[in-house]
Amino acid sequence: MRLQIAWCMSLLLAAAPVAAKVSAEEAARLGQDLTPIGAQKAGNEDGSIPAWEGGLTTPPPCYQGEGSRYCDPFPEDRPVLTVTAANAEQYRDQLSAGQLAMLQKFDSYKLNVYPTRRTSAFPDFVYEATARNAVNATLEFEGESLKNAILGFPFPIPKSAQEVIWNHKLRYRGVGGARWNNQAAVTPSGAFTLVEITEDVKFPYAARDATPDSIDNIIIYFLQIVRAPPRLAGQITLVHETMDQVREPRRAWQYSPGQRRIRRAPNVAYDNPSTASDGLRTNDQLDAFNGATDRYTWKLIGKKEMFVPFNSYKLHSDAYDYDEVILKGHINQDLSRYERRRVWVVEANLRPRTSHMFKRRVFYVEEDSWGIVLVDLYDNRDQLWRWQEMHTFQAYDKPFVGPPAMETAYDLQSGRYIAYSMNNQAPETIERDFEKSYFDPSNVSKQSFK
Questions:
Q1: Which of 2, 24, 251, 365, by CA, is between 20 and 30 Å from 86?
Q2: For residue 54, is pLDDT > 50?
Q3: Residue 110 burial by CB count (10 A; 0-12/13-18/19+): exposed, middle or buried?
Q4: Burial of 431 (0-12, 13-18, 19+ CB in 10 A)
Q5: Domain membership flag for residue 7
Q6: Domain tally for the chain?
């Protein structure tokens, strides 16, 4: 009888909210001293971070419209400082462990820090939904089940680390889109073979008429197809990402042209190697972090000012070939843009009796977009092993932040790295509202022949 009572109590405790909605009084700060999605509206004391004044919602004259390249709205901007190995100690507090390690490892590595442009903006209906979520959304079952949230950011005034991570996972990126995610696994000598990948995505959570019930527990539909090189072409990965991962874990399938059949693929998760990554990126590193959080315990460290990639229009330019962007040791840092920004710092530590190749992860989440921009990754000895960056920008015609110009994952021990989410020499990402049936597993094999 005692065992039965203890078992029932454990279920009740697991089901209890681990993240509570905020009061109406606290939510009223949104749009006042906080931006509509929860960032500090005011600038910092020395003015190096300006006040948020609504973001960038008017395309610059160089933009030619939907489907054309997102051009740089700030072509006259010049760096206000450059961080190198020689002066890195002076800026230690504004750098992640990974950035410091890169500065120490490569004489050619540097961070050009530009004026901070608070370009982030989202549609008014996202702001309205975010305000509703603030007083309704909760997390249950140790943070794996999101309840009573839809369309907007679920936790604009976060009280826990997992709330911050859910904001990243559900940040508004339109109702869906089609993009090229070209990637290169780079050897220590700088050699690489470009892998060309298309990705189609639908965000049911972001539909204007969506309700928590209507999306049927699916927040993201994702279809990835390898197009080149020929030895990899035709490989397909399909994912249906769930909002309540206790009710139903992620659904995933893979199709191999050699086998000519689609199979369920529970390995498309956690630290299993991702498509054509040469072991340099795990499945849960795409989009900086994705998927379940259950293998880690999570701690919210707080907020700080750091030099992070943002407004990366130059890196996104089609004026550069991939061999001008991808160099030995690291990407071309002359094309990267860093800004002083406030970030939430979140630490994840591997739970006892679980497994993952990263024992500890430190995430840096930019406040204006809720996007992860840097990640420090530690091995089982708790030594810094790998490091990630997300180079992103404002899609000023939508408006929302993303897609990224590039993501990178560096292996500090081997000197190898992978650059992905690139489309410099491919068509621009477009917003597209796919039918749900497009992502049905029965249709997947047909896609490999298109």
A1: 365
A2: yes
A3: buried
A4: middle
A5: no
A6: 1
Q: Name the residue type at position 364.
A: Y
Question: Residue 1 domain-assigned?
Answer: no
* Phi and psi torsions of 322, nearest 5°: -65, -35
Q: What are phi and psi of 352, to 5 degrees?
A: -60, 145
Dihedral sign from CA coordinates of 399, 180, 187, 413: positive
Q: Is the pLDDT of residue 42 over 70?
A: yes
Coil, strand or helix at 443: helix
Structural domain boundaries enclosing 276 = 81-447
Determine the average pLDDT of the residues in 90-97. 98
pLDDT at 11: 39
Is residue 244 a part of any domain in this protein?
yes
Does 29 fall in a domain? no
Average pLDDT for the chain: 94
Q: For residues 147-169, give the mean pLDDT.
A: 97
Question: Which pLDDT band holds residue 4 (cuts at 50, 70, 90)?
Answer: very low
Residue 7 has pLDDT above 80, yes or no: no
pLDDT score at 239: 98
Q: How far is CA 98 from the centre of its chain?
A: 17
Does the N-terminal peptide bond of residue 17 adopt cis geometry, omega within 30 degrees of 0?
Answer: no
Please choose, from the candidates 301, 336, 342, the residue with its C-alpha nearest in 3D space to the C-alpha of residue 52.
Answer: 342
* Phi/psi at 165 (5° precision): -65, -40
